[in-house]
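During the reporting period the student researcher (J.K.) took over the structure-prediction task from the postdoctoral fellow and processed the backlog of single-chain submissions. One of the processed entries is reproduced below for the supervisory committee.
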Amino acid sequence: MDQAARRQFLQVGLATSAAILLAGCEGSGQKATGLPGPSWPSESSRRASQPRPAPPQAQPAPTGLPQGVQARTEWTRSGPIAALADPMGRIGRITIHHDGMTPFYSVNKADAARRLESIRNSHVQRGWADIGYHYIIDPSGRVWQGRPINLQGAHVKDENPGNLGIMVMGNFDSQRPTPAALNSLDQFVAMQMRQYRLSVRNIYTHQELRPTACPGRSLQAYMTQTRAMSGRMARA
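J.K. obtained the following structure tokens:
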């Protein structure tokens, strides 16, 4: 192989490797090793989408923070750029995600706060209003406030209006959610179901709305189980 051919081969290889590393929550199933990838929903194109309407029984978002939720001031000093987001409107469904980054096991509050801020910075650098999710659950089971729920999220492309985004920290193609995180997920989602008068039929995972690997194999399997008739979320 001459020098010109060798350089061309290396350039193609590097481009392919970069594409794999950028795969995130809305990736194609490749194991993500960095921050969430650029194929996530664009805030700048949100008004051109054709979202499904929220069901008639959907309730408006309350202004207060649910009991026990860590306020965003616990992890960031920056507020959302409201001019870049649309109002949330009536909430008619909930979508569950993982962050799709490297596996995350820490139960330390400061570690979770740093990870949240790194995700927010990544989203803002793409021109988004804020972190894309409304609530985040860490491996210890803490629930964190993300984007204020009076603002539409940026977590499922073309499907964000009236859609509450809840993310569990970690990559569940590479690890399993902790029992504490799953317990909090069931309890917190059940609380939101009561708040907005939703049933488990209104609870989705990211891959059920868009072609993506999110929320990872193990969390997807758990969501199928917990929403079943005898599952914890269905019985809550």
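The committee noted the following: The domain at 3-40+52-235 is CATH 3.40.80.10 (Lysozyme-like).
J.K. will present the remaining backlog at the next meeting.
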